[in-house]
Every structure is written in C-alpha cells, then in structure tokens.
Design goal:
It contains 22 helices and 17 strands. By secondary structure, the chain is α/β, with parallel strands linked by helices. The strands form 5 sheets. It has an 8-stranded parallel barrel, surrounded by 7 helices. Strands 10-12-11 form a 3-stranded antiparallel beta sheet, covered by helices on one side. α3 packs parallel to α5, α14 packs across α20 and α15 packs across α20.
C-alpha cells in the first residue's frame, strides 16, 4: 500500500488492482510468460556461508601442480539403489509441468538437459491438460504431449547419462500416468510429489478457452468459476472475465498409502522411484526422510520456500514455508540421525532458488555426504528462453547490439557451438533448437565455475566435498546449520602449527 493513498487515484497499487480484478491479482502478472520467485529477504541464506580453499594437498588426484588443475575435476555423480543412474553434472530440473512457460520451452529444456547428461523431471498435470490425451474409464491410454516430451529427451540422450523422470500428483495418479509412462514409453524413473517450495497448494494454471476449461472440469480438475454453469458461460462470452483457473487437489500423505503406491510403481516396472517434498513444517520433512529410508526411495528432493517457476500465489510464495538454509540444515540433521543408526539414506537433492556454481557447491557441502544433486528450475528455464530468443533474433536479423558484437550466427554467438558441432556432426547440430544450445551453454559455465571452486578447495571429485569446505559468516548461520563459524575454522590446527 502506498504511504499516501489519495482519493481519485486509479489504483495502480496491489490493493487498487484487487479492487477491480479481485482474485486475479493473487498471481504474478503477466501470468504464464514469466518466471518469478519470492522477493523476501530471509534472516539467513546461502550467501551467509563462504567456501573454504586451501594451499595444501589434493583429494582425488595426485598432489602435483601439473595434475591438480581445475579441468581435471570430475563432476560426474552416480546414485540410485544400484548406483545405476549416472549424471555428468550434479544438476536436476525438478518438476516442469503443464504450464505455458514449460510447454513453450520444452524443446530447449529436454534436448539441452539430455546433451548435458543431467536430469529433467516432467511435472504434474501434463496428461490431464493435453486435449489430445485419450482417456478411457478414467485411465490414460494414449497421449501427444507426454510422448513428445519424453521422446525429445530420449532422442538426444548420450551414453546412458542423465534421466527423464515422470512426476505425479493426485490427478496424475488417478489417471495412471506413471504406469502408462513406464509400460508404453519406456520411462525408468518416476517421482511421487508431496509438494514444492513455491506454494502450499496444488498446481494452478489459467485457461482462456471455454471448451478446454470444460474438458478439464470433466476430467475432474477444480476449475473456477464453474465452466459448465450457464451464467458463468454467459459472463465469459460477454467478456466479464477472460480466463478460468485450473487447480490441482492437495495430496493426503499417510505411510500406508505411500508404501502402497511405491509397491504399485515397482510392480508396474519402475526401476527407480523418487520423492519430492516442499517447504512444509519440520514434522513433514521428517516423514519424507523416514519414508524414503524405510521404503528404499532412490532420490529425495527437498525444496525450500520461495522457489518456483512463476505460477504460484504471490503472497504465498513470499510468506509460507521453511526457507532453504533452514530446511536443508534440518534435512541434513535428519539424514545424519538415520545414518548414525545404520539405516538406509537415499541420495538427496537440495532445491530452492539455486542459480550459479557457488550455490551448487554450498548446497552439496551443507548436505554432504547425503546431498548428491542440486535442483534448479528458474535458471535453466531462463537460459533456454534466452537461447530461443537469440535464435529467433538471428532468423529475423534483429540482434541487439550487445549480442551482435559476438557475431550474427549461432556458431559465432554460442561459445559451445563448435564443441557441439564436432560431437554431433553438422547435420545433427543444424537441427538443434537454440533453446537447447542456450541451456547446454549455461550448464557449461556452471560446470567450469564449479570445477574452479572445487580445485581451490583441492577437491577433485564430488565425493570429496564435505561440510568442512564451508564456513558460516555469522553466528546465527552457524547455529542453524551446524557449519563452523569462520573465526573458529581450523582453530586447533592453527594453534598447533603456531606452537610447533
């Protein structure tokens, strides 16, 4: 609200817009074409930790200046109950589902992820939102969009690296989406979804077509206002409102239903079963860690508050849930508690606002040795969108000066173009969407930056990263995380050196 509210103002503030557009103003605008996350400044965040380097030795390579160079750092990671999932980089894109921002950039996200050898999760509601899905007796038997999404990834997957993962919420489970993906489309990895860090409710999208809104209503979704109500139809047709809201139901977690669903998926042929949970209260995180342990889940992703790809209620995105540092610290504590008792701990993935290599390192270190991956969505989506936009600008000969200074072709502008052309061959390279090249190039930057940070800490493979590679910059950060305060790092060792 403005400090001085004047009678006669047209209402440009949030209250003013709410006075004439009501519930529409709950969501970030323009809905469907932007990615947004919380603007809230948390008391402690990942910037309150610094990475510790050293001038002594090397782990994972000979302590030799000619061998301990940052290109020698190995960023590959293997996980799963049999170690059978291999990624070239410790990155997974959590559920990117039925939203326009996901669908319109899927080529870049799928092909770029596959080429990079990383993970990509097909999020909730993709089948239910597809008008061309064939559903019989409440179960999916054929799709267009899901088949396309999976094929785009699998067609570009190289040497067995990476994974395409199919997630399911309440509606997806009722439709049998994961069984269909396993049995008909060759998917090996599926993910149960309890929630996400951006919101405390199910997914939502806006629908601007009456027939589609009615189709989704018939498929069992919550659609507001009711698109089958004659009065609502009349109001829509005369322009009283221009879009319907489609909402997913919230899940109801119980150990019995969780165990049953995991068993169903394994019987259906799922080789790996994952779980993703959101920024819920600590007791729910404890359930996620314990259930993942007890039922031998292959990967547990824990998403901190404030993330998302831009479809969540704005105030909710800012004001609910446990923030990333706090929830990831609790995740480590719970995993350590089980491990100390000899219980199984699955590979963990930390998610919630990560964008660059320093944050990746910090998340891996904060949760070491349990955190194997970092989940990122908005960063990869942004990279794919920019790559796509540059490609369009090249075609239209409308490159901005900032980009044109590098050249006016894909080969000149994208720094990884030559590498990809050599690896794939001219014909395959020419068919690549520039969104994929953009994502691949973004990942190349993250990989090189992460290798440099790890080399500085003398850690030449991910398995050597430990919590000791971080220092907390404030006492509060140290207290929350259990990471040593910077002025106490190496205190005993330093004193021993001085007193020798």
């Amino acid at each position: 609200m403005c400090v001085t509210c004047v009678d006669g103002c047209i209402g440009m503030c949030e209250i003013g817009k709410s006075a004439y557009r009501g519930h529409e103003v709950i969501y970030p605008q323009p809905f469907g074409v932007i990615t947004t996350a919380a603007e809230k400044v948390y008391p402690v965040d990942y910037s309150h930790f610094n990475i510790m380097g050293t001038a002594v030795g090397a782990q994972g390579v000979a302590a030799d200046s000619d061998k301990a160079i940052f290109p020698a750092v190995n960023l590959e990671v293997a996980f799963g109950h049999d170690g059978g999932i291999k990624f070239r980089l410790p990155i997974v894109i959590p559920g990117i589902g039925s939203t326009d921002i996901a669908k319109n950039n899927w080529e870049g996200l799928a092909i770029g992820s596959a080429l990079a050898g990383t993970g990509l999760t097909i999020g909730e509601n993709v089948v239910g939102m597809d008008p061309e899905s064939t559903i019989k007796d409440g179960r999916v038997v054929d799709t267009v969009d899901l088949k396309r999404r999976i094929a785009l990834y699998m067609d570009y997957q190289r040497d067995g690296y990476g994974a395409i993962i199919v997630q399911a919420n309440v509606e997806d489970t009722k439709l049998g989406v994961q069984e269909y993906a396993i049995e008909k489309l060759g998917v090996q990895c599926v993910e149960l979804k309890w929630g996400q860090g951006a919101k405390d409710i199910g997914g939502e999208v806006k629908i601007r077509d009456l027939k589609k809104a009615q189709l989704l209503y018939e498929r069992g979704y919550v659609v507001l206002p009711n698109p089958t109500d004659p009065e609502v139809i009349k109001a829509f047709e005369r322009g009283a409102f221009k879009e319907f809201e489609r909402h997913s139901r919230v899940g109801m977690v119980s150990e019995e239903s969780f165990a049953k669903r995991v068993e169903e998926l394994r019987k259906a042929g799922a080789k790996y079963v994952f779980l993703k949970t959101g920024a819920y209260r600590p007791a729910d995180l404890a359930r996620a860690v314990k259930f993942a342990s007890k039922y031998k889940i292959d990967l547990l992703t824990v998403d901190g508050a404030g993330g998302g790809t831009g479809m969540s209620p704005w105030r909710m995105m800012n004001e609910w849930g446990v923030p990333p540092v706090e929830i990831h610290s609790l995740m480590y504590q719970y995993a350590r508690r089980l491990a100390d008792k000899g219980e199984y701990v699955p590979a963990l993935a930390a998610a919630g606002g990560f964008t660059f290599e320093d944050q990746i390192f910090k998340a891996l270190a904060l949760g070491a040795p349990f955190v194997r991956l970092v989940g990122m969505a908005r960063g990869p989506v942004a990279a794919a969108m920019v790559g796509k936009t540059i490609g369009r600008a090249i075609e239209e000969r409308q490159l901005p000066v900032y980009v044109e200074r590098f050249g006016d072709s894909i080969d000149e502008i994208f720094v990884t173009a030559n590498e990809l052309r050599v690896e794939l061959g001219d014909d395959a390279f020419e068919k690549l969407p520039t969104g994929a090249v953009g994502l691949y190039t973004y990942y190349e930057r993250l990989a090189q930056g992460l290798r440099q940070l790890m080399a500085g800490s003398r850690k030449f493979a991910l398995e050597y990263i430990t919590r000791d590679d971080l220092a907390a910059l404030t006492r509060e950060a140290a207290d929350i995380s259990g990471i040593t305060y910077v002025m106490d790092v190496d205190k005993e060792e330093a004193e021993a050196i001085l007193d020798a």
